[in-house]
Write a structure and sequence with these properties.
The structure is a single chain. By secondary structure, the protein is an alpha+beta fold. The protein contains 12 helices and 4 strands. Strands 2-1-3-4 form a 4-stranded mixed β-sheet. Helix 1 links the parallel strand 1 and strand 2. Belongs to the GST superfamily.
Length: 256
């Protein structure tokens, strides 16, 4: 049995979520609400002591880290539709892109996202409420990031992250002008993992991601959004999240 704990179809949570739909695997989605800080609740920290999503429960075995989960699904379900090539050179090319998104692209986009989204949420809390929330975060680096978001990231940091975003966009656009998919002629985890970060940038970063400036990147985003698995993922995730039970009623569902 597969159960995926995630924030839903966005950022790192989107990677294994879309991979599960692309592979046609039956699973139970468990959407963790970041606005309620559910990932820092004791019931979730029993699943992942780091208090981070996504986390995959496969018959009691917990797999964490978004890209690792995607690779795990390839290994655990070799008969399902493949998202990893079979040729070693092609696999290496795919992994260059998944490594890059994890170590570079994701981080610069994440900082801007924290400034725009997490910062206002953190500043809406009283000092007492904020400190209570922060002390429940098990990773010291995440505690520091919450404090930075509440105070507002320095302009120099935001400027540098925007520079990195532009570098990332240029790299994606160049590659997609040469090939339909990032790792070659086949749709792979390279596309899934980068799409998780790039999807929606034509709205949030429309000055640099748009049909005029980045036609190949925009077309690639549209191609993935039009895939049956992506359409199903977004539709079902929207319904699941809308119908989810409040935390107080869900705690009994969490593993002991």
């Amino acid at each position: 049995m597969l159960t995926l704990y995630s924030f839903g179809p966005g950022a790192n949570s989107l990677k294994p979520l879309l991979a599960l739909y692309e592979k046609g695997l039956a699973f139970t989605p468990r959407f963790v609400d970041p606005t309620r800080f559910e990932h820092h609740e004791d019931w979730f920290k029993k699943i992942n002591p780091r208090g981070q999503v996504p986390a995959l429960d496969h018959d009691g075995h917990i797999i964490t880290e978004s890209t690792v989960i995607c690779e795990y699904l390839e290994d655990a379900f070799p008969d399902a539709p493949r998202l990893r090539p079979t040729d070693p050179v092609a696999i290496a090319e795919m992994r260059v892109w998944t490594k890059w998104v994890d170590e570079y692209f994701c981080w610069c986009v994440s900082t801007i996202g924290w400034e725009r989204g997490i910062g206002p949420m953190a500043r809406a809390l009283s000092d007492e409420e904020f400190e209570e929330k922060v002390k429940r975060i098990p990773v010291p680096e995440q505690q520091a990031k919450w404090r930075s978001a509440r105070a507002g990231f320095p302009k120099a940091v935001l400027d540098e992250e925007m520079r990195k975003i532009r570098v990332s966009i240029d790299r994606l656009e160049k590659r997609l002008s040469e090939s339909e998919w990032l790792a070659g002629e086949t749709y792979t985890l390279a596309d899934v993992c980068n799409f998780a970060i790039a999807n929606g940038m034509e709205k949030g970063f429309d000055d640099i991601v748009n049909p005029t400036a980045t036609p190949h990147l925009v077309a690639w985003i549209e191609r993935i959004n039009a895939r049956p698995a992506a359409i199903e993922m977004f539709a079902k995730s929207k319904n699941e999240f809308a119908n989810r039970k409040p935390f107080a009623k869900r705690e009994e569902q969490a593993p002991a």
